[in-house]
Amino acid sequence: MQGSVSYSSLLAWVCWKRGVYLGKVDYRYTSQICPNCGAHAGKKDLSEREHKFPECHYLINRDTAAAKVICHRGVTAAFADRRAN
């Protein structure tokens, strides 16, 4: 490998070398979507650290919500890729 390698290309190479699945997910709006019901909370000021979703009464930290939404999108994409192959 060459001297100047991006993190994403290095990660892709390591995953390929070890036979590990690597998929990309859409990161947009992940901190605004409820990981429990999928409702959209809308844009909030960065000082607001928690979301309470009126649709399902779920209260969660914004960063935790984003991580859960990204995880869900990743699992969904992985299963979709497996079904396609």
Question: What report would you give on this structure?
Answer:
This protein is mainly alpha-helical and 85 residues long. It has one domain. Helices cover 41% and strands 9% of the residues. A two-stranded antiparallel ribbon has the order 1-2. 8% of the residues are buried. The mean pLDDT is 87.
SSE blueprint:
Layout lengths: L6 H12 L31 E4 L4 E4 H23 L1
Antiparallel strand pairs: 1-2
Q: Indicate the proportion of strand residues.
A: 5-15%
The helicity comes to: 40-55%
Helical stretch tally: 2
Low-confidence stretches: none
The count of β-strands is 2
Mean pLDDT: 87
Main β sheet profile: 2 strands, antiparallel
Radius of gyration: 17 Å
Largest sheet, spatial ordering of strands: 1-2
The count of domains is 1
Helix and strand pattern: HEEH
Globular, elongated, flat, extended or rod-shaped: what is the shape? Answer: flat
End-to-end Cα distance, whole Å, is 29 Å
What's the short version?
The protein has 85 residues and is mainly α. It has helices at 7-18, 62-84, and strands spanning 50-53, 58-61. The chain has one domain (23-84).
